[in-house]
Design brief:
With 434 residues, the chain is mainly alpha-helical. It has two domains: 61 residues; 363 residues, no CATH class. The chain is 73% helix and 0% strand. It contains 16 helices and no strands. The protein is globular, with a radius of gyration of 23 Å. The N terminus is likely disordered.
């Protein structure tokens, strides 16, 4: 009788685990799609409740710590400490709840929901399928609106921001590293052909976003990939990629794909620090000069009291600094996550933020360095390192560390840490008990 009860409990636990995985599959598929907030909430909180009930019922929860708990806690505390001085307490509180607590919850939810290596790979396959549909819609939207391939007449944004492109570019730079490194991980020729085709589709869909920050992010990713390939002694691949990068750069420069960056006069660093923001912007600023002017406004404000927090939240910048002189070039956000964090939380907040993302890099680098080239840990660690390089370069030119981009970042990190860290640790503990 007891054996039957244990078997029933085991079957129920497996069903709950499958249900949680299905919800996470839905979530990773719809994250880049606009107007899906209700489905996202369902797909995030349903598996959370299911897993809590499962662990409460089975009494088999084991906390396998990562290297991220202390940075997460420190950043959470520094964000909470900004509430008393925030220019908008309710906005800061809402941002802490939605843009800090929720992504961390999603990281641990993904981290503990994955019960075997194939679960993590399944979520990545769903991500790839979503990127295909997203890219195909970008092509359709691009042609429908008269887009041209080598001049910026329309910026395709897929199912996220048609006509904008910025968030779509971030999405593609997050997906493509997992496609690229998959070419070295899979052995089946047809799987390699499929990954190659999907990588090409994503590259073309990325191209028609015409986002310059994304282009720089791709460039940094390619440099990192070449370095990793050289360290693996894959000389032919590194040479091919280098030739590809140089050729594409030449084509982009020849066709003036960087828009006003080809003609804009950028002040030297010394001139920039001495100029008032209004002079940097001019009377009719380009998007590049707007960013430079906004960054100068933020830097000037930070320099008044470097340790003063204006309140956690990307959208408090405009509320704090906008006036009659600068309102024509001030956006709600700083369009630079790093300057934005220093503005919101003070220099101390920026230091903790850099510590946190540095820990992400260090942990993934450590797993990559220890891994074999063709195993799952090698694949995931290389993909995460490349993805993070592009993500943070994008965030140097925009405030993308929020909303669906941040949730996808934390979900991918959770997948990687579950497969690279938690599952091997649990296996080791199980062997020790036997």
């Amino acid at each position: 009788m007891k054996k039957i009860m244990k078997k029933d409990q085991s079957e129920k636990s497996i069903q709950i685990e499958y249900a949680a995985l299905i919800c996470l599959s839905i979530l990773i598929f719809i994250l880049p799609i606009a107007h899906t907030a209700t489905i996202r909430s369902f797909a995030l909180f349903t598996p959370l409740v299911l897993l809590i009930l499962k662990y409460w019922h089975d009494k088999d929860f084991k906390w396998i710590k990562t290297s991220f708990e202390l940075p997460f806690l420190a950043f959470f505390i520094i964000a909470l400490a900004s509430l008393p001085t925030s220019v908008d307490f309710h906005e800061s509180f809402k941002e802490i709840r939605g843009e800090l607590i929720k992504p961390i919850v999603l990281f641990y939810l993904t981290y503990f929901a994955i019960k075997k290596e194939t679960d993590g790979l399944l979520l990545l396959k769903v991500l790839f399928l979503g990127s295909l549909i997203f890219s195909l819609y970008s092509f359709y939207d691009f042609y429908k609106n008269g887009g041209t391939w080598f001049s910026v007449t329309y910026k395709a944004g897929g199912l996220r921001d048609p006509g904008g492109g910025e968030v779509a570019a971030v999405y593609h730079t997050m997906v493509m590293p997992f496609l690229f490194w998959g070419l070295f991980y899979v052995k089946d020729i047809w799987q390699r052909i499929g990954l190659s085709a999907l990588l090409a589709i994503n590259l073309l869909a990325f191209h028609i976003t015409f986002v310059r920050a994304g282009m720089l992010a791709i460039a940094f990713q390619m440099v990192l990939i070449i370095v990793l390939l050289i360290l693996q002694k894959r000389w032919v691949w590194s040479f091919i990629l280098l030739i590809f990068a140089v050729t594409v750069s030449f084509v982009y420069i020849e066709n003036k794909m960087f828009r006003e960056m080809h003609t804009e006069k950028i002040p030297s660093l010394r001139e920039y620090m001495m100029m008032p923001p209004e002079d940097i912007a001019g009377t009719s600023p380009s998007s590049m000069k707007q960013r430079l002017a906004m960054w100068k406004v933020a830097i000037d404000k930070i320099s008044e009291n470097p340790f003063y927090p204006h309140g956690y939240g990307r959208f408090l910048f405009g509320k704090t600094v906008r006036n009659e002189k600068n309102k024509y070039f001030i956006y709600p956000q700083t369009h630079n996550t790093f300057i934005g964090i220093a503005f919101e939380l003070g220099i101390q907040g920026l230091i903790i933020f850099l510590w946190m993302i540095g820990t992400f890099f260090f942990v993934c680098w450590r797993y990559w360095h220890k891994s074999k080239e063709d195993n799952t840990t090698g694949y995931l660690s290389a993909s995460l390192l490349t993805m993070m390089a592009g993500y943070w370069i994008n965030n140097f030119f925009g405030s993308f560390d929020g909303d669906d981009s941040k949730l996808l970042f934390m979900m991918l990190l959770g997948i990687g840490m579950a497969v690279m860290h938690r599952l091997p640790k649990e296996k080791k503990l199980l062997i020790q008990k036997q």
